[in-house]
Amino acid sequence: SPKPRLSPKRVRPEVSTPSTDSVEASAQWCIGAKITEKEPSSSFRDAVKTHRMAIALTTYPNDHLTEEQAEKVQLDLVSRITGESRPQFRDCYLSRGVLMLTCENDLTRLWLERMVPQLKLWEGARLRTGLSSDILRTAKVSVWITGTLRNASPSVVLDMLNTQNEGLQTGDWRLVNKKIEQQGQTLVFDISDQTLERLKRSKFEAFLGLDTVKFRTVTKRTDGAHEEHGPLDWLESTSGRGASA
């Protein structure tokens, strides 16, 4: 009898499974081959960096720009914009007697620094511009005065501080508050950041008359649109440096 035909044994195809090492190697190769964006050069970053600038009277902080004067400055600046210069600004507004502007890039900042000294808008007008952090007052300090100068006017106190303390230039200090008591008086001044650093070096102490006085920081100012007031409700507001005690 014929023998039954045996079907050939089916051979299972061999499937090559990559090893763990080869998978990791491929993944690393893909990561390494990924195209990364090129970082902008430092000169390019500087060119597109915005700058917070300020325009003020050269006698600031003793004299402030009025709204009318600030409008004249803005109109004159706009009239000087040409296609060649192409300055670009983010915003412009009046704050605490200073015209604040945000320059879109370094070229705009340079343009503004060239234009402002050329502005002749009213008789005797002298303007300056620079970074807002350099022009705006940055801090308030208070000082308690007793002894022989307890009844002295703020202007006399400032002149005496300037005379007796080398490097402590009080010409641009602005009196913002005061309180008179039986034993003496407390004066609060608006000062520049440079003056604040000078006071720090002397540990906030200064010679005044026949005594020494101690200053303390009342508030830290920013270059924004609003002035921050510390806990000075007990102080009497005054309008300027020369107010009498």
TrEMBL record:
Record domain DUF4780: where: 49-216
Record field: compositional bias (Basic and acidic residues): 222-231
Region of interest: Disordered: 1-22, 222-245
Comp. bias (Polar residues): 236-245
Residue ranges, compositional bias (Basic residues): 1-10
Protein name as annotated: DUF4780 domain-containing protein
InterPro entries: DUF4780
